[in-house]
Design brief:
Blueprint (H helix, E strand, L loop, with lengths): L1 E2 L5 H21 L3 H20 L2 E8 L2 E3 L1 E8 L7 E3 L3 E2 H15 L4 E7 L3 E8 L2 H9 L18 H14 L4 E8 L21 E6 L6 E2 L1 E3 L6 E5 L1 E2 L2 E2 L1 E2 L3 H11 L2 E4 L15 E3 L6 E6 L1 H30 L17
Parallel strand pairs: 4-7, 4-9, 9-10, 10-17
Antiparallel strand pairs: 1-2, 2-19, 3-18, 5-6, 7-8, 11-16, 12-13, 14-15
Helix pairs in contact: 1-2, 2-7, 3-4
Length: about 350
């Protein structure tokens, strides 16, 4: 049997020990039914302690892969990322999500960071191996609110990307670094895009992935509500405004980063570069085992004992109500203020 405690063992002991001591003292002083009651409460506490230790039985071994690489994802969250020209009339963001999932599957065990940009750049998720959290972040990701949009630059994330890569290089100089940029290249401010050349020396591989079409796609109004978008479209001069991909800008970003540019469409498979670092099979130095959890046994004991406690409490409450109920004898009158009846 092995244990995977939810907290430090000493902290769990510190939380449970005082309560256990009080229960033992009460048990030694109790008599009759009270002794059995305190014994049950002591068992309840021990079951909680056992459950917090998360006991389990080692199962069969499985092979897990790890890529010794840090991957930074830079995602456009301007209004144009939901332009409906992906796979016909679907939002471009659907394509971004699908490609991120492909990247996660291609580089198992890598650490991922997520940067998004619109009017400003934000580090949504620092480097982590928790790909479930990464995918969940992208699932709930929404573009900027249309009413608050004042234009954006496709290069506004350049400094944040450089800082993220620099910090990763300083913290883990032996790990390689990859950058994937997701966007449509549409520059909606009058100033030229900021260059990404400051990140080239820190990037070992990656790609710039472009979304959109030359014909363009309409964009729904985005809101800050739960739905994220409305049924209405952004209009320009009485017609639906169209967002058109700018591949020249995207190719310039790819040149700055020293990676390849790839125009993405729903009917084409994503082509990814090989990871710069060697993929390691953990089974070579010791396999990672599956564990059959046993904490549920203690949980059943806790539920059963709590059921006993609740039943006893209900019975006591019922008795108290009977004792408090007013009783009057038949044929007897209440005395009046003027004297005896």
């Amino acid at each position: 049997m092995i244990f995977q405690p939810v907290l430090n063992v000493f902290l769990i002991a510190l939380l449970c020990a005082p309560v256990a001591a009080l229960a033992v003292i009460a048990l030694t002083k109790a008599k009759g039914r009270d002794k059995a009651l305190w014994a049950m409460r002591l068992v309840l506490l021990l079951a909680c302690f056992f459950m917090l230790l998360r006991p389990g039985i080692p199962g069969g071994a499985t092979q897990t892969l790890a890529t010794d690489t840090d991957i930074v994802l830079v995602v456009d969250t301007t209004a144009s990322i939901v332009a409906e020209d992906w796979n016909g009339d679907e939002p471009r963001l659907d394509g971004v999500r699908a490609d991120v999932q492909t990247i996660v599957d291609e580089y198992p065990g890598a650490r991922f960071a997520l940067i998004t940009f619109d009017a400003s750049a934000d580090l949504r998720m620092p480097l982590t191996t928790d790909t479930t959290a990464l995918v969940s972040s992208l699932e709930v990701l929404r573009p900027e609110v249309t009413s608050q949009s004042r234009g954006s630059s496709i290069g506004i994330a350049n400094q944040l990307l450089t800082d993220t890569l620099s910090n990763a290089a300083e913290a883990s100089p032996d790990r390689s670094r990859m950058v994937f940029y997701f966007g449509d290249g549409e520059q909606t401010v009058t100033s030229p895009p900021e260059p990404f050349d400051g990140s080239e020396n820190l990037t070992d591989a990656g790609a710039v992935l472009g979304y959109g079409s030359a014909e363009g796609g309409p964009m729904r109004l985005t809101t800050g509500g739960i739905e994220g978008s409305s049924n209405e479209y952004i209009e320009y001069q009485g017609a639906n405004a169209l967002s058109v991909i700018d591949e020249e800008n995207l190719e310039a970003i790819a040149a700055d980063l020293g990676v390849e540019y790839q125009h993405r469409t729903a009917d084409a498979a994503l082509t990814l570069p090989d990871a710069p670092s060697t993929t390691t099979d953990y089974a070579e130095s010791g396999s990672v085992g599956n564990v059959t959890e046993l904490y549920w046994i203690a949980a059943l004991v806790v539920v059963a004992l709590l059921g006993v406690e609740l039943t006893r409490a209900s019975m006591l409450v019922a008795r108290l109500r009977l004792l408090r109920a007013p009783s009057t004898s038949p044929g007897r009158k209440k005395p009046t203020a003027g004297g005896a009846a």
